[in-house]
Amino acid sequence: MAAWFVPLSPVLEAYGYGGLRSYAFATSALAALVTPLLFGAIADRHASPVAVLRWASIGSALTSTLATQAIAAHWPATAVLTLIQVQALFATPTWSLLTSIALAGLREPTREFGPVRAFGTFGWIGGCLLISAIGADASTRAGFTAAVGWLAVAATSWAIPTIPPPPTQGGQSIRQRLGLDALGLLRRPEYRVLFLTAGLAAIPLAAFYPFAPAHLRDLEFKHTSAWMSLAQATEILAMFSLASWLGRWGTKRILGAGLAFAVLRYVLLATDQPFALLPGIALHGFAFTLFFVTAPICLNQSIDPAWRTRAQALLSLATQGVGNLVGYLGTGAWLAICTSADGTRWSLFWGGLALLVAVVLGYFQAAFRDRPTLPGSTQR
C-alpha cells in the first residue's frame, strides 16, 4: 500500500498527469463507497474472509501493473484514471478484511490488536524507505514494486487459518447480499456519532499524503517518501502503548486525544517552517492511531460476530469512502484557492484544515457516549 499510495502524487506529476492528482486519490474513496460493504457481506456470509483477501490482493497486483504501465506509456489521462480506479476497487476492501481477520484471531483484542496492527505500520515504513532507496519517489518503479508486494500478501494469506463464515438462516435479499443491511447499525445514536465523526475526521486527513510531500519539496527536502515515514515511526510507538492507554483513559478520551493531535499536527504544518514541518508529520502517527485504530476496537468490543466484518466495512465506507471522497476533492479545491502564481500559501491551507478538525473535535466531545452497544450486540 505504501509503495503505491505515498509516491502516487509525485509520480503523476513527473509523468505529466499532475491535474489528475486529486481525482486519482479520490478513486479509493469511490471504491470504498461500494466494495467494503460488498466484500464484507461475502466474507460474513459466503466465503472465508481469508480467501476474499487473497483474491482481492491478486486483483490488486494485476491492476497495479496495468495502471503503472499506462502511466509509463503516457496513455490518455482518462485511461490512466480508469485503471487507477479499477485498482482501487480491488485494493480498498483489503484493509477492513484484514482488520476483521486479525480481530477474529485475538483472545483479547483490546490488549493485543495494537501490537498486531503495528506490523502494518512496519510494512508501511518499509515501503516508504524501499521506494526512496531505489530512487522511485517519482518513478513508475514504485507502482511495479507495489504489484510485487500485493502478490506477497496473496502468498502469505495461505498461512492464515481459514475463518469460515457464520451460518445463515433462510434466503437473503438483494440488500443483504450487497451488505446494505449494515446501514441498520446507524439506528443507534451512539454509533451514528462514531461513524459521523470518523467520516468528518477523514476529510482533513485526506490532505496529508497528497499534499505534505509537495510541501516538503517546496521547503527543499529530498527523498520525500522517506521523510513521510516519520508518521509511521510514531504510529508504532502509539500502537504498542494503545492497550495501556485504553485501560487507563477509556475509549472516549483516546478518540478525543487522537483528534486533538490531528489539530496540533496541522497547526505545526501551518507554520510553513522546516523545524515545525517534521514534528507535524510525526504527530500524524498519534492522530491516526488514537482515533482510526481505536475506532475498530470500539466496534469489535460490542458487535455480534456475525456482523463484525460488515461493521468494519461500514467504518471503512464512512472514512475511506465518504470522508476521503469529500476530502480528496475538497482539499484539492482548497489547495487551488490557496495557490497563486507566487506559489502555495501553505499556512492558509493547513490552518484551514486545523480549524476543521477542531470543529469535529468539539462535536465529538459533545455528542459521543463511551462504550455504546450495537444492534445484534451480545451486550443487552
Can you walk through the features of this model?
The chain has 18 helices and two strands. It is globular. The C terminus is likely disordered. The protein has one domain: Growth Hormone, Chain: A, CATH 1.20.1250. It is mainly α and 380 residues long. A two-stranded antiparallel sheet has the order 1-2. 74% of the residues lie in helices and 1% in strands.
Number of strands: 2
How would you sum up the global shape? Answer: globular
> Which percent bin holds the helix content?
over 70%
CATH topology: Growth Hormone, Chain: A
Order of strands, widest sheet: 1-2
Radius of gyration: 20 Å
Q: With helices defined by DSSP (H or I, 4 residues minimum), what is the helix count?
A: 18
Which CATH class?
Mainly Alpha
Q: Main traits of this protein?
A:
single chain; 380 residues; mainly alpha; Growth Hormone, Chain: A; two-stranded antiparallel ribbon; 18 helices; 2 strands; globular; disordered C terminus
Short description:
The chain is an all-alpha fold and 380 residues long. Helices cover 74% and strands 1% of the residues.
What's the structural blueprint in terms of helices and strands?
Blueprint: H1 2-5, H2 8-14, H3 21-32, H4 35-45, H5 49-72, H6 77-91, H7 94-104, H8 109-133, H9 141-156, H10 174-177, H11 189-205, H12 208-218, H13 224-228, H14 230-249, H15 251-270, H16 274-302, H17 308-337, E1 339-340, E2 343-344, H18 346-367
Antiparallel strand pairs: 1-2
